[in-house]
Amino acid sequence: SRFPIVASQVYELPRCRSWIDRRILLRAELSTAWGPLQMFSTHTARGDGCQVDRVGDIVRERRGTGPSVLAGDFNMPDTSKELTRLRDDGGFVDAFRLANPKGEGPTVYQRIHAPEATVSRRVDFIWLLNGEESSVTVRSSRIVLDRPGQLSDGSVLWPSDHYGVLADVEIV
I want to staple 106 with a disulfide (CB 3.0 to 4.6 A). Which of 49, 78, 86, 119 is the partner? Predict the structure, then answer.
């Protein structure tokens, strides 16, 4: 971060679907010119809705004066009941969807040696939650790291099996 990290915490997520699949939520509080900013990152297990519910609870419990940003691989589409609940009941805003209401924005299942794009689902998100005294506005959001590089032998290599999501936001 270009801003100082003044606090951090790791939260272990419940193992509702598979007791051997350990997952976490990481929190870092940044000191910014606009005040405190809570950053959260997670990678929830496929189909484990209770992990997503717990992530939403933790972010809301840690809500402070400044906004919160929750980013990660949620392993489920934005139409899932858990992510719909996060948005509709939890007050979270999907940065990509707000900036691209009709954009598909798939982010996953890229075969890293394939010569063409193979992504088919959007499971990687940046969620925003306003703070008690300041809010966050999405200026733009787009998919990044969605082009392969070319190796010396002429073959291609994609950066990851996931594309990235980038959001330009303004804190007011």
Answer: 119
